[in-house]
Hints:
By secondary structure, this protein is α/β, with parallel strands linked by helices. It is built from five helices and eleven strands, in the order E-E-E-E-H-E-E-E-H-E-E-H-E-H-E-H. The two termini are about 20 Å apart.
Amino acid sequence: MVTRADIGVIGGSGFYSLLDNAEEIEVTTPYGPPSDVVTVGRIGTRTVAFIPRHGRDHRFPPHRIPYRANLWALRSLGVRQVLAPSAVGSLRLEHGPGAIVIPDQLVDRTSGRVQTYYDIDGAVHVSFADPYCPSGRSVAVTAAQAGGWDTVDGGTLVVIEGPRFSSRAESRWFAGNGWTIVGMTGFPEAVLARELALCYTSLSLVTDHDAGVEAGEGVTHEEVMEFFARNVARMRTLVADAVQALPGERTCACGSALDGIKLPFELP
């Protein structure tokens, strides 16, 4: 039985078949249980821990996901690099459904989500100028291009509170700011990963153009889920390829994000 992992995947329930020799592990954290039991197994020679972001029955809407528990659970199992596939809407006409965006920047437009582990016993200020791991991004871009995806290297993900979609005015405002894609789950995942000195890489599948980009009735939940379901097998292949290409030893700055900082508690 594999009970440790060095790579984590946070994604939809369609990713369960990603792992070989999989075992389910119940993990407890100081922040409550994660979204579901953690499935640990192998992809080639790599050990991987998988958490379904919304729970296997999709019971957690974006603003209720136990983000802190999810990232803490992964780190407690040994994970130091995280891949985060998700569905997003495009704010750019040129990036249509089926494109893979590997963002390099993030804008938070959520409200009320707990976004830090360090909310007691003094402030801990962690750099977040570049939210995503450069090594993970490079690996993801290369894997997507090799897989024949319409790959967008870089761009800004704006994260909204949800669970509703954007109004046309909001969507046009986001696009007018030069942002690239819009989603509901990329924050606070990314900042919590940084606060745990984890590498975090977003693999964003465009499922639709956002409301302000094209004329029509606007995106629906059913359309997003149907498009993602049609592409989930291909997304599993992309994630598996990226997992196997991630470096065995980290040389990026993510692992030293907490160097020189006095933490109020010990990390797992």
